[in-house]
Amino acid sequence: MLALIEEQLDPDDAELRSDVLAWRSRASWLTGSWDESLTSANAAVAALEGLPESPQLARALARLSQIEMLKHRVESVGHAEEAIAVAQRVGDSFAEVNARINLFTEQATQGVAPDPDDVIEIVDRAIEAGVYEESYRAVVNFIWSADGYIPVDEIERVNMEAQRRLAAVTPPVSIGPYLELSTAAMLFLAAGRWQEVDDIVGAADEVAVTTATSRLVWLGLVGGMALRRGDLQTAAPLIEELQPAALASGEAQRIVPMVCVVLPYLLIADRLDELRSLAEQVLTMLDGRWPSVLSAAPVVRALAAAGEAELLERTIDSMRRTASEAQTARLGTSVIVGDGLLALLEQRAGEAVEQLTAAVERERELGHAFDVACLELDLALALEADGQEGAAAEARQRAASVLAPLGCVNAF
After folding, report:
1. Same CATH fold assignment for domains 1-109 and 110-406
2. How far is CA 325 from CA 65, 139, 332, in A?
3. Residue 148 CA to chain centroid, in angstroms?
4. Which architecture does CATH list for 110-406?
5. What value does the CA radius of gyration of the chain take, rounded to a whole number of Å?
6. Is the model's pTM score more than 0.85?
């Protein structure tokens, strides 16, 4: 339909053409046509080149910054700031709100913690302007952006406050289910609140499991939970679908969660050639561009468990090539875990104990009970190698006190 409309436009219809291209960009992203989405977003801005500032320009810049943010491109920050400035001058609330969300999201991947008060203000502005999808998107992006900077309890408090303000607004079908899945994936899973994960997954409707972006999160959740509970038969087809879909997106925020599930699966299934192949492919795609807000600890833990010391070292080095200011939040913890596990493989037990203890303490401060339990198992190995048998037994007991009630068989 959008293509038909564009065919009918005259050369003088630049603003309308830009609108059509911006909507095509949005539609392409929702349906998983990732490259087309960026192409259309750039074209929407180019269509207005040389023309006076307008709401169409503000919106085109905002959409471009949104797609760039999803693809983890540094240009997103500049385009978001430009969109905000233009939107304020021409009085376009939608473009301003959209760009403000893009700005705090991309800044978080570069090492700047999101401000909860700013997020609540964006939600209020979006409600006031009647752009309800953006009000929900602000909450979703905060959940994805705050992880590793802010404890789970505080993220949940902001989420609940935003939901209170949105009580009279029906969640848009385009993003409501995605908010629920994001809450399960980013908060409840790491916190060991698996019953709440199960409840959300069980309530997911057809839209949640068919929309391209929501399906990627859903596949990772359902497949990952089955893997952790030892049900490889259920996990297998979900994980087999997840891997190529996430890689095709080209988005770091899709690739990192995917590889955190797929590498442990390949390890447990004893498909080590495939494990090495996927790890190499991810290194090529993400080298120096690991998002600070996403945990990659299962990646380095799977490589260490497979005895892949050289590949583990290259993966850690790849993470370190990410801009130094972005080596914070969960990426920073992942590097510490990787260093500790590499030290353990290289029989530097004392150093391994020091690094893994630091990682456990970081995750505990954030309220990530399940992730802490996983790391306690690695710490126990390091303590044992360091001759600290009693401390190793205590670490394993602490891990079991969390993992056993969850029915966790494979702690990744």
Report:
1. yes
2. 21, 24, 10
3. 11
4. Alpha Horseshoe (1.25)
5. 22
6. yes
